[in-house]
């Protein structure tokens, strides 16, 4: 699951974090993902979800100072299923190891968090799980961030099965999307092939794929700016946009998106789906 949970200090009136935080937790619990990437997550929001989701371990640091300041691209994973092998963070800039850095026409520091996991149910390769949030204003920043991300996943994910989640602030078919997903694109310089799970599961694109709702229920028209991507060594069983509402209220201004995945060469394990879809 990938879920932009909306910046918790935003002045959203009836949609303020305190009035919808239980809806966020309930929506996550309903799908019960093995792997969860969140965006716009402040430290107190991460702590709230940790309390409501005790079966998950988490990582995340603030984009401003590498500590608690600023939004996190926080990751949650089931601690009973996965053993953490390594983790890290980098910034979407020309100096990705510099905390709080930004480049190109980015309006704010943007970052990426990742964790390398061993699946206790499989003897197969480790899983590299990557979560990010691209800039909302800078088209050059989104384009260059896509290139950097491809390079980083290629490097970090050597020998791994990879899963990427994020809010990319760009629709399907945009230049960042082409850089990440078009196998024959000269811009795909990262050296790794990624598959857009939703596009693979729904090959006939429509204009009803919006993932940003602005807190309005049942919004369908608009760009699909939230993506889950995988390397080709996963079988994509399903990929959906979760438009759950609660008496006309949505848990965030983005819809969470989901994918149920199975190891292509190992039918004994799957990830990303609900409890009912797992092999036990």
UniProtKB/TrEMBL annotation:
Protein name, per record: Endonuclease/Exonuclease/phosphatase family protein
UniProt xrefs under InterPro entries: CCR4/nocturin_mRNA_transcr (IPR050410), Endo/exonu/phosph_ase_sf (IPR036691), Endo/exonuclease/phosphatase (IPR005135)
Keyword flag Hydrolase: yes
Superkingdom of origin organism: Bacteria
Highest classification ranks of the organism: Bacteria, Pseudomonadati, Planctomycetota, Planctomycetia, Pirellulales
Keywords: Endonuclease, Exonuclease, Hydrolase, Nuclease
One Pfam family from the record: Exo_endo_phos
Domain Endonuclease/exonuclease/phosphatase: 1-254
GO molecular function: 3'-5'-RNA exonuclease activity; endonuclease activity
